[in-house]
UniProtKB/TrEMBL annotation:
InterPro entries: DNA-bd_dom_put_sf, MerR-type_HTH_dom, MerR_fam. It comes from the Bacteria. Gene3D superfamilies: 1.10.1660.10. Keywords: DNA-binding. Pfam families: MerR_1. Residues 1-69 form the HTH merR-type domain. This is MerR family transcriptional regulator.
Length: 120
């Protein structure tokens, strides 16, 4: 079991973020006898997944919805699958947008380099 500070350091997030995720019912840590939060390996894996969802721009409301469905059990599998497929589509759109921006930047960089080399 890990403390909130250990988990924050391990995952490179703040303790505030962990408390926020708890408040939003995205994660439910175990409480020890003195009421301190404790996290196990399955909590860590779940948080790693949540962090990836956030990094790929999934709104917190959708992450909360996914977490809620997961807690409800197996009868929500189809709905969870739909949420993830929708998010995957969003990520693919982000990738296309980033690739187009990268190509445009590469063109501009190349043009500047050509211009500068002709000035020498």
């Amino acid at each position: 079991m890990y403390t909130i500070g250990e988990v924050a350091k391990m995952l490179r997030i703040s303790t505030h973020t962990l408390r926020y995720y708890e408040k939003e019912k995205i994660i439910i840590p175990v409480r020890d006898a003195s009421g301190d939060r404790r996290y196990n390996d399955s909590h860590i894996k779940w948080l790693q997944f949540v962090i990836k969802l956030k990094e790929t721009q999934m709104p917190i409301a959708k992450i909360r919805k996914y977490a809620s469905l997961a807690l409800e059990g197996d009868h929500t599998t189809t709905e969870r699958l739909n949420l993830l497929e929708e998010h995957k589509h969003s990520i693919q759109e982000q990738i296309r947008t980033l690739k187009a921006a990268d190509e445009m930047l590469e063109y501009k960089i190349s043009a500047y380099k050509d211009f500068i080399s002709k000035q020498d």
